[in-house]
Write a structure and sequence with these properties.
The chain has about 200 residues and is mainly α. Helix content is about 75%, strand content about 0%. The protein has one domain (about 1-190). The longest helix is centred in the N-terminal third of the chain and has 25 residues, at about 50-75.
């Protein structure tokens, strides 16, 4: 049990690394939290600091999800319920990072990394949903919200794991909750459209 607590804590601290803030500061673009929407995620970095930094932020945030969960599942050989706890710790680290006063991102990229390890088939379906919705309506937030809503059903369909379904419901609920302002703007017709 003490080892599991240390693993979960380490996963949280990895997830809490604010990649968007670090990358924009290193590039000389300033503090991303004071620009655009103020969010530390890839979409805001893309809009404020450009495509390269936006993509790099996406990759780094996803890797934060991949590495701890992969190590727990493949190297640590932890049972599935414990792997689910590690996944939740990484995700919560990104959304509520101790390094930034618990004010983090919306969790989409880190959740993507988590599910790449837990259920690649689910990721394939979620990416298809996301791309289709963004291609049609040009709203990143809409694609993210709908993909999050579909995730628990897909995890249940492909994995049939109570632990993973429970963790996925929790992750999906937080992703949607953290998009509540976007939902209001979508309803009001004031949400920013994505432009390549």
């Amino acid at each position: 049990m003490p080892e599991l607590i240390l693993i979960i804590l380490a996963a949280y601290l990895v997830g809490a690394l604010p990649c968007g803030v670090i990358l924009t500061r290193l590039s000389g673009a300033g503090d991303i939290r004071s620009s655009g929407s103020g969010n530390i995620g890839a979409t805001n970095v893309y809009r404020v600091a450009g495509r390269k930094l936006g993509v790099l932020t996406l990759v780094c945030d996803a890797l934060k999800g991949v590495l701890p969960v992969l190590l727990a599942a493949q190297w640590g050989h932890l049972p599935e319920p414990q792997v689910a706890l590690v996944a939740l710790a990484v995700f919560l680290g990104h959304c509520y990072p101790i390094y930034l006063g618990f004010k983090g991102g919306k969790g989409v990229a880190t959740a993507l990394g988590i599910f790449i390890v837990l259920s690649p088939l689910t990721v394939a379906c979620l990416v298809a949903i996301f791309i289709a919705l963004v291609a049609i309506w040009r709203y990143i937030s809409l694609g993210s919200i709908c993909a999050a809503a579909a995730a628990p059903l897909l995890i249940f369909w492909f994995e049939r794991s109570t632990a993973l379904v429970g963790a996925t419901f929790f992750i999906a609920a937080i992703v949607i909750w953290r998009h509540r302002e976007n939902i209001s703007r979508l309803i009001g017709g004031t949400e920013n459209r994505f432009r390549v």
